[in-house]
Structures are given as C-alpha cells and as structure tokens.
Input
Amino acid sequence: MKKPFIRRFTKKIFILSNFVIAILFIAGASVKYLNPEKWWFFSLFTFLLPYLLFFLILFFLFWLLVKPAWSLVSVVAVIISFHAVKSIFPLNFSSFSIEKPTNTFRVMSWNVEFFNILNHKEHPEKKDQMLELINQYNPDIACFQEVVAGENKGAINYLPGILDTLKFKNYLYSYRIENNFDQEHHYGILVVSKFPILRKQTIVNNPNDYNSTYQFIDVLIGTDTVRVFNVHLQSLKFSADNKKYLDKGPDKNEKNYEESVNIIDKIKNGIIKRASQAFYLKDEMNHSPYPIILCGDFNDVPVSYAYETIGEGLQNAFVQKGSGISRTYNSISPTLRIDNIFADKFFTINQFDRIKVDLSDHFPIVADMKL
Output
C-alpha cells in the first residue's frame, strides 16, 4: 500500500533540508581552503556554524526515531568537519580557579572599549571597576584592544595612572597619530607585562589604518624568551542602526532591503580585509625565533579564514580548556566568540575562563599556562 502523498512529500522535504544543512555546514567549516577575495560568500556560513550544528543534531535524533539510516547524513557531515565542531563547542569540563596554579603564568586579553571614555561623565566608576577586575585576576601579561589613553596629565584616561593602578611598569602602547581619539588621547592597542621586556615592536601594514596596526614584545619568563603578539583585526564597523536591525529584526518603517545589503557589504569587506591582515601577521609570526603567544580581538568567529590562518600550528586556550560557546562579544548574537588567546604547542594550557561582566562590549578572557 502506498504511503499518503503528504507523508511522502514531508519526508522528501526533511531529507532535502538535512542535506542542505549538512552541505552548508561542511562549506562553512572548509573556508580556510577558499580564497576570500573570490569566495567570500562562503565565509558567511562560518557565522552560522553553531546554528547549523544544532540543526544537524536535531535531524540526527529525529532520524534515529523515524528512519535510522538517514541519520548518517548528519554523522558524516560532523565527521568531515570535526575540527570545526571542536573549535565551536569543545567538550571540556574543567573549572577555573582565580588562584593561579603553581609554576604557571596568567595571560589576559580584553577589548576595553575605550576604557569607558565615551560615558565617563554618566558612569565615572566604570573605568575603576575595569581596573579592579584586572587586578583581581592579576594577569602577568595582558593585551588590551581599543585603548583610548593619553600621556599628558590632563587626559581623562591618563596612561601612567592606569599603569600605576594595574602595577605594570613594562608596556608597549601602539597607535597612529592619524587615528587619535582627540587632542589628549590616542587610540590604539596596549600590551603590559610583569616580566622583563627585551624587545618592543609596532608593525603597520597597508592601508595603514588602526586595524592594520599590531604589536609584539619579547618577554623573559625565567630563562626563556617568549614573543607575545597583540592584534585587533578589521572590525565590521556596524552602525547603531545595523546592530538594532540584527538584534530586533526588520522594522515596518525601515528600508529592510537597503539595510540588509549594507550589512552584507560590511561583512564582505571585513572578511577580505581580515584575510589580508591575517596573512601579514602569520608571516611575521613564522619569523619569530621564540615560542609565541597571540592575543586579540579577531572580529571573526572560529573556523573563519583569518582564524584558521593565524591559528595554524598553534593551540587555542578556549579549545583546550574552555567549554560551551562562550561568546566574547555581548551583542548581536550569542555565538560571537571573536576574542582569542593562542599559544605555541611548547606551552601547556592549565585553565581558561571567559569573564562575563558588563563593563565593555567585550568580555575579558584569561588563560593560565606554562612552558
């Protein structure tokens, strides 16, 4: 007896949907093999990978109950792209202790969103809370992005005062005068260390804008020299309207088509620029004579072209000791883990934490490690 038409049609729709999601998942997990200049569109799927993985799991469970053979579609997709699964959702169950384990040192990375200078009149206490949090976690090396600070005593964010509060004497503040925040403040990236700094280097690549500036320092840890990179890759430059559109969806009074095109165009430009920045950065890293630690705001998700290019041959502290999805950007989507701490395989990662505090538009991350 033939099955009812609706049942057969529904089954075909489910099978087709499962195949489409599986193909999109594999495509998103494989963008490191695709030149973003030509194939930037496939990089859009990297932003969707956590959701696609969720639907693959749902289909797997559904077919197990209905037709077990079709569950292999999800299984094969996950096996082919298992490196992506580990990067998105590592299954670690270790806890984090704020007290550093013996013989380890702590690394922090945090996009501090200007140290709250835009809202210092309404919330002057926020910067102090940020500095208190940093002191509470007591990092030995800290990399900060989107740092607005000045060396003149009249500056609201007086850099020597910030460093004194944090008890750091060794630092490198990298910025370009052309990108200054105002007459009293620079806009750049800052790396600080409680270990002696043997060398400091600021590097600027074309097009010579803020996101093309990165830095490294060579620090002496015991008898070993380690090179620490601090980076802030090309941001998407979403406007307030863009973020509202992504957070709340289309509005009846908005021009939804134009807004969507504007957002996709910004994503495309960001993907291409970050790929170029990642190439230059990786070349510099490959010339390092010392083991590497790399921290920064990538403005890109795990498995993206920039992430894979930079992370090749390195270990990600979150993947080693983190758990869940652990978003680091607190807007737009719960899956945006765009801040990273990478380390050479010469290091052992002891523990990792994403500190969920509402003091910046990013959450700080910390990792304890040893050579």
In short: The mean pLDDT is 91. The longest helix spans residues 36-66. Residues 58 and 217 are 46 Å apart (CA to CA). The chain has ten helices and twelve strands.
